[in-house]
């Protein structure tokens, strides 16, 4: 939907400034809320206690190409690329054993997704070299690879490889649409950004990602920058 | 602009692909050991120097290669081994006369209450089931009722200042798996306390279940300790009430061989035998998985059994107690798996 919207709008913006860029998001915090304090194993007859709100953080490897159209203090950004966590997102849950103790288990999800988003931003101060901005938009993630391992070791030095214990609870193997909100600082050739993606739709678990990235902009080849008005020298 | 459109269109096509969704897999059953269930035992002839007896025993395979529990077929006569020994100075000998493998007649859908011993004294489950295997066994049973019957769960213990001796976890017996009930079962892990209110709890459980079902009704008791003797109900009262209300009492007891003093086997045997229930003695928690996975079939008698007939003799001047005789035998599994043999206690009463 966002892509179609962009396609429709693009012809009307031919006179505006057009930038391309490459974004690398290197770190993400995943804010997750489980609907209940108990989850049921998807491989056996166990049930686990789970902290309903968890915020696992890990390295991201989100690489995306950007097309940005500026219009005065507003801009529209189309971003497409990959969305992945090379070290995996880890969730923690516990099984009660004797003596008032618990065995703690971890599930680690690694996924490789296509990610496309469309956002509209607003420069809060256009006079600075690095212009602070806010943005909001919508995007879609489509996973192409999903892997889940389980371990009782938080470092996963030993693990049950491929044991999908909470796959259908988290549902990160399924495509989803997300709303995004972001803040950043953008210069002519460089931008720093933080984006918060909130998964929407019919999913049992609230899943969101706050990711931090850097974007390098280039001039779009064979196109000149245009302005709707002549800036004063 | 054409290039942009091309890139965007390609991205759209790429993202519109639907990821493949796997069918939900069958859940792995918990680890299991071979287990035998004593369905009935009886003394057919009881005299001073000879007791003739027969018993029915269902035997289930703890084959972990299969994701199901199957009947243990093909056991030879030599699988049933009694130990001859000296009794009051004389040599007691056991003879197996006949072993038959027979089928049973299926019963109508059951209604059962799984009554869990939550007492912590003198024994508690931590000693025999530290890793809480029993929860998986309960859940596997509950999740695989397959329309065979209805179940409710309850637990019992006697705590100081608490008048409740039996607490149901379901409002009503149900054939449907319920998440809240399972949550309460999981919570039971750390809620062992007090002493055993066995007879009082059974008394209340009979009233509870008899009010809700009149056909193939039972209480399946998962027991760890003997009654603390502090209650008002007695063994005879409980048995009479169960018979009057047509409620069978099945006894599953988990006791290491060295801790048998914490239970009262004749009492457990009487509860089951006189009400038409079965007894399962387990020394390993992994046997309980086999029992609970098979429990829905067992409660409908969808099982085969071994009918074993034998004799016990003692030469004069020795003689047997003329009220009851307590013995037991080893059932050796052929081929042996991780578990070689089960000890099955027998209690024979003169009619």
Could you characterize the architecture of this molecule?
The complex is a heterodimer of chains A (233) and B (351). With 233 residues, chain A is mainly beta. Chain A is 5% helix and 61% strand. Chain A contains two helices and twelve strands; from the N terminus they run αβββββββββαβββ. In chain A, strands 1-5-6-8-9-10-11-12 form an eight-stranded antiparallel barrel. In chain A, 38% of the residues are buried. The mean pLDDT of chain A is 88. Chain B folds into two domains: 35-104 and 305-349; 110-286, Rossmann fold, CATH 3.40.50.410. In chain B, 25% of the residues lie in helices and 31% in strands. The termini of chain B are far apart. Chain B has helices at residues 2-16, 125-128, 133-143, 179-187, 198-210, 235-244, 265-273, 285-299; strands at 35-46, 50-60, 80-82, 85-87, 90-103, 110-117, 149-156, 166-168, 217-223, 247-254, 279-282, 304-313, 324-332, 341-349. With 351 residues, chain B is of the alpha/beta class. The interface between A and B is large, with 40 and 40 residues.
Short description:
Chain A has helices at 2-9, 167-170; strands spanning 17-33, 38-40, 47-50, 53-54, 57-71, 74-84, 89-97, 101-123, 131-151, 176-186, 190-200, 206-219.
Strand fraction of chain A equals over 45%
Structural class of chain B: alpha/beta
Say how many strands of chain B there are.
14
Helix content of chain A: under 10%
Q: Provide mean pLDDT of chain B, rounded.
A: 89
Instruction: Count structural domains of chain B.
Output: 2
Class based on secondary structure composition and strand pairing of chain A = mainly beta
Q: Class of the largest domain in chain B in CATH?
A: Alpha Beta
C-alpha end-to-end distance of chain A: 40 Å
Main beta-sheet strand count, sense and barrel state of chain A: 8 strands, antiparallel, barrel
Give the name of the CATH architecture of the largest domain in chain B: 3-Layer(aba) Sandwich
Order of helices and strands of chain A: HEEEEEEEEEHEEE
CATH topology of the largest domain in chain B: Rossmann fold
Largest interface: A-B, 40 and 40 residues
Straight-line N-to-C gap of chain B? 100 Å
- Total strands of chain A: 12
Tally of separate helices of chain A: 2
Strand order of the largest sheet of chain B: 8-7-6-9-10-11
